Input
Amino acid sequence: MSPMPLLLALLVLAYLGSLYTESERKRSFGSASGVEFVVLGALLGPHALGALNSQAVHAFDPIALMALGWIGLGYGVDWGVNGERRVPYWRIFLGCALTLVVALGVGASVFAIGSALHWLEREELELASAATALVSAETARHAVRWVSERRIVSGPLSTLIGDVAAADDAPVMIGLAAVFASYTGPLKVAGVAVPVWASTLGTLGIGVILGLVCAYLTYRDRSTVAAWSSLIGCACLAAGFTTSLGLSAMGATFAMGLTLSITSPIAAELRGKILPTEGSLLLPALLLAGARLAMPGSQTEILLLAAALAARVLSSYMLGAAVAMSRKPWRKSVPWLGFAMTSSGSLTMMVGLAFSLRLSQDIGTFALTCAALSTLLGELAGPITMLRALDRAGELHGSVDNPGATAGAAKATP
Amino acid sequence: MSGGTAAHKGVGTTLMQALCLAVVGGLYYLVSHAEVAPEASGGVLGATGFLLLAGMLSSGVLEAFKLPHLTGYLLAGAVAGPHVLHFFDHGTVKQLELVNTLALSLIALAGGLELRVDDVRKVARSVLASTVTQTVLVFVTQAGMFLALAHLIPFTRGMPTMVLIGVSLLWGGIAVSRSPSATLAILSQARSRGPLTRFSLAFVMSSDVVVVVLMALIITLARPLLEPGAQVSLANLKGVGHELLGSISIGTTMGLLLVAYLRLVGRQVLVLLVTIGFVLSDGVRYLHFEPLLTFLTAGFVVQNLSNQGDKLLHAIEETSGVVFVVFFATAGAHLDLPLLATMWPIAVSLSVGRFAATWVAHRLGARWAGESPLLRRWGWASLISQAGLTLGMAVIIARSFPAFGESFRSLVIASVAVNEVIGPILFKIALDRSGESGLADRPGHSLRPSPLEEGAPGGELELEPDPLPPAPEEPEPANEPDTAPETSREPAPE
Output
């Protein structure tokens, strides 16, 4: 099959995606994570209906790479920001800590069971465990968004969850940079050997330098054209540099976005330009990610996937329950908040896609499959339980469309 | 990236831009000299980003020397490209040509949108007169000059006279072509409005059609001279007729669909433009129609058969700014400098001859049409640039006449390199000197015929404030981001 129909499909999805994220309040359709597009991709892909063959899918790898870079930039520029407000430091710390706990739980489980079952060589197993950990680490961002798009939500619990969700990307992105650097091994740049730890820092360093350049250029000349030229130019450069070196494009563009967010006096304006474009790239990327999915190759892989999901659910549940227990008014929401924390979304899928594009096929596909299952599971459990948890905590105040409706109506939805 | 009317930037800004350029270039140097895993890719992405940033920064630095932005884009591409710093190779440059598809469709669409029937009527006489004089004089003199210099051109030495005449005819046809993209890019940067702008747009866009027909005619007539045994065949002309009519039909349909979309939906025009640019260009080419003419027609239809023209034009200007930088920087990377180094005496001689013929033809045409002194003085300046269209025709000739086609194409590339660098600079100077630069950004002013336009010698185009509404203070140029209003910074797709 020629890549042209796929290009058309991707452009249509880009169009839909741009409508999808046109306004923060407007999106009242579709799942929180966009997992339906992953499923669509999987159905159309080479391992199901075969409407898209592997060659056509791989022809779009550069576009997937660009999408990942741009989405990484979006995460960076929005990191630590909840709505218009910067998240307090201790909540940033909390968000990062929660992410690390979940990641460590999942990674350790996969490593332990994989070792016991002699799944892969030790180095590969470490890599697979780290990749699985990173695709499982995201917390409740999309569930929060899903609820806030449908209900009027306010209160300390929803603010805390929103803050934590806004701050949980950084460990994943740094981890991504480290895993890519480790997979690539020591580099030689201009005759100088660069160890893995320096490559990891280099990934982020490239992003920081280009973020500073971009911050200067966008501030110096505020025309729309200059802003887009600078943003696209720097993002492409960061993604291109790192990919050429075998490093993580998402890690670099995340660092670039974060630098922009911190150093640019017009960060809010830039955020307003970048974030609405996320949908245009996200939906095509989700479709491509779905098309790259494959059924697990062996019973061992199925077992490991089950173990990873179980570890994720368990660790997320315990963390959610711990948060709910920390204050008396929230205790009623203990069971629901635990499950609500299992929600994951586009970050999970994008990290999975990044691994699938870079790592060896076994490990990359395993990580992507784990990401897809985690997203699907989170989608089934996360938004509904989040709605319940906030309802129990008394923080739902009616529907967005009908502000006068009582909170109790929430129980009937979705 | 401010418009052409921007005042001088501070030395500090220029130095900072040069520093940013050095940082980005340094990073690229390090990365391009790293030993990387063989499976690693990303060269195209990096090259795109680099050309975009380097083009933008170079144009900013060159602005201090009053050079057009386009020159900065070309320079960035040429220096970073495979012939000088080798930041990326020919394969990467080839892959970047994808951007050309989008750029050319946007250029043609914008060109059609700029052609308002009322405006075209005003310059119809001038355009007609210039088209006739330019086509005849440039064609004849360039063909003659090529014939005269043939003994100095390596690939024509020893050719029989009849073959030589055939090749000279082809060269004459190539010389008649112009660059709509360069003209539009300069007009966009300069934010110009006025008779010179109108004339340049109308002429360059209509010359596209003329050149397509002329080249088909020349190839048909020259073939018996170039290939012994070949006969004049009207098949080529029939093909051209099919191509022209088909392109106009599809363009009209596309234009009407665009009008319907803009009226009924009117949102996400940017995504729509990208879709149109990539998908429809390929579709039109697949049907053997001319994409440039198709999009030109579509733009013309939207502008003149609906009230959606300005909306679409604004959307294109916002999109095309970024695309233009990559497009021209890629064109710069394509410039074959080693080839130019070997062929420069011939290329420069032919370019100088073309310049002289263009100037004389323009003076004759302007006198014939009874043109205003302003147009008489500066109208030729937009006719020097050559770029994609010319190179495209050289490719067609190379395919049609393999015996000498590749060498012929090399000479065209060398000649285009000269015209592509000089042309935009001359046109920018003409717009600045004629006083048309920046007029598109001045809502409180309208164009009135100045004494110069009405035939009085001496002065330049004058601006008079409209009685209603009162003309606002002209905004400060975009050097002080804290104070200048947003509208003054919006303009310029570069």
Q: What stands out?
A: Confidence is low (pLDDT under 50) at residues 405-414 of chain A. Chain A is about 70% helix and 5% strand. Strands of chain A lie at 81-82, 85-86, 151-153, 187-189, 192-194, 396-399. Chain A touches chain B through 54 residues (CB under 8 Å).
